[in-house]
Amino acid sequence: MTSSNNPPILSGSRAPELAPRADGADAAPRETSVHSFTAHGDDGLTVALQGEIDHHSAGPLRLLLASARRLGYRSLVLDTSLVTFADSALLRILRDWTDHGCRLRLTGVTPAMERLRAAAWGCPSTCRRHAHIGRGKARQGA
To answer: Is the pTM higher than 0.70?
Structure first.
């Protein structure tokens, strides 16, 4: 079905030009997902996240952790006490971190993070202390 409000996916033999829309979710301002970060010890890093963590806002965290890993950081404490929403973009970043043999500990688990944790690892936090992501381990703490 095509109308003036719903253009066809393909117009003729070529796809339509894509331009940002002035309304809707795509036009919402993007806040950075990283609230703060602190290095400690020889290989430790603490990162506090804030707001909504999705594929639009996860870029700063992805870059920070990739750089930290290249610099030799192997232990991450992730404070999620200010996270209001998180989706699979955050899971992919955490899996990438642990797949490289790095350690992860979650702190300040909000209801949004608990829903994500339950969807990813299946079991309520009271049922087991450790959750596995990839080859590394994720640990939930206070």
So the answer is: no
